[in-house]
Automatic annotation (TrEMBL):
SUPFAM superfamilies in UniProt: 6-phosphogluconate dehydrogenase C-terminal domain-like (SSF48179), NAD(P)-binding Rossmann-fold domains (SSF51735)
One Pfam family here: KARI_N
Source organism (scientific name): Pusillibacter faecalis
Gene name per UniProt: ilvC
Protein name, entry field: Ketol-acid reductoisomerase (NADP(+))
Residues the entry annotates as binding Mg(2+) 2: D191, E227, E231
E.C. numbers: 1.1.1.86
TM regions (residue ranges): none
Binding, substrate: S252
Keywords of the record: Amino-acid biosynthesis, Branched-chain amino acid biosynthesis, Magnesium, Metal-binding, NADP, Oxidoreductase, Plasmid
Cofactor detail note: Binds 2 magnesium ions per subunit.
Amino acid sequence: MANMYYEKDCDLGKLDGKKIAIIGYGSQGHAHALNLKESGCDVCVGLRSGSKNWAAAEEAGLQVKTVAEAAKWGDVVMMLINDEVQAKVYKEDVAPNLESGNALMFAHGFNIHFKQIVPPADVDVLMIAPKGPGHTVRSLYVGGKGVPCLLAVEQNATGKAVDIGLAYAAGIGGARGGVMETTFQDETETDLFGEQAVLCGGVIELMKLGFETLVEAGYAPENAYFECIHEMKLIIDLINKGGIAMCNYSISDTAEYGEYVSGTRVLPYEQTKANMRAVLKDIQDGVFAGKWIAENQTGRTFLNAKRAQMARHPMEVVGAELRKNMLWGDDADPDTAST
């Protein structure tokens, strides 16, 4: 069993007197910065000059500096910008300003595990990785709850990296949900696999194909959207709270019976597992990382084309129209998506 830590195991006081620089103010960045500030920590946000997020961070009551200034100011530097730009920003603005004994932190292990960032030996290198989107990290914290986190230590130069990591997890609310100890390698590989095979690649493709199948059979697109997309959240909320048992308790016996007789028809067990193993092997061997790095070096043509294609898909067009008339139709704030 992995080591698990909770609020009783974390001493937020380990961050007393330490300045925390949050590099980036996107989904994770805004959540970490605001949660830490409201937990009483000394926080600033590091952004590039002219960033569109500069004013938003200041309006939220946060002090903002350039990335280089923030890295120089901070005793703890948390990298929360996109994976694909982290190495460049680190080399240009963060590395020259790190001091011996600083803590360099990440919320995902990609750049450390695949050696895109190689920190000096005299700094702590650790990870606090919330197991949920940043907007959920923020909304659950505000509601008195927290998203569980992973803790990993790659370098423990000061001997205090675990204490700093646990304190940081407590500061963003993660210790309320639990903090699991892991490694950079395990976090990176399982995170990439989960995103590709299940959470994003798998689930979204499953919803899309279900929607298309019903529409092609002559059913109303609106009906197909409700059945194959809208209700996904309702099912996942039940599983999140009480596992498959709570889901199956809450759905009809007809639905549960259908789960058993048709699930493996849609996803044939052996073939699906073989496909998943192939995805995992590409991640473990660095094949996926190489493709993603190359994609960003060559103009992101594949990613941009797929984004445009998805935006035109009927399930997105129909869904946008339906959501306009729902109670939350005028609420475009991702921070409230889990409430």
